[in-house]
Amino acid sequence: MRRTSFSIVCVLALALVLAGCATAPNQQQRGTAIGTAAGAGVGAILGQAIGKDTKGTLIGAGIGAVLGGIAGNRVGAYMDRQEQELRNALAQERAASVRREQDILRATFDSNVLFDFDSARVKPGGVSELNRAASVFNRYPQTRIRVEGHTDASGSEEYNMDLSRRRAQAVKDVLVQQGVDPRRVSTVGYGETQPVSSDPAANRRVEVVIEPIVANSNSGSSSGSTY
Question: SUPFAM superfamilies of this UniProt entry (predicted)?
Fold first, then answer.
């Protein structure tokens, strides 16, 4: 009996260590699925230690799935780390501002930094800024990214809508070139429809919205808003 109790304690300790590793920043590239699978495997061992039978194994696997997934109560800490890294990465040139709305991050880039007037081609300085952002996004793959293009009201509404869409796509292309998974990134152009200031220069901007993907502990799947 004492040996069994000691085994259970050891396996529990191992489960907690592996669960922590599954969600540590240096393991994020593996994604939620691997973390969940690892947790389920440890849980299966735990089930054998507890139940010594198949039923115990299945129960343990369920426990492991919860341990290995990205739990909702860890989202805040995950986004805290990403927010700080993103602020640090973009602080050097002050070409973008970062603000947080609950667990959603919004990085706003000055369009003059990214593009020449009436152009959808990212300037070299803009590429450098986006590369810094991409390095952070690559370390936090359990997020979705939406690139939003905005223009001022000069020119026709139709033209501005098209320009904002092309600029959003150009930003996505740079992020993808830096290794960001294109399946994570969506784009949308708002043209002149969402001004934030009476100053036209402030309205010419690109906003990158970063939203966490929350794992469903019951099924091992992930959920979050779709764009």
Answer: OmpA-like (SSF103088)
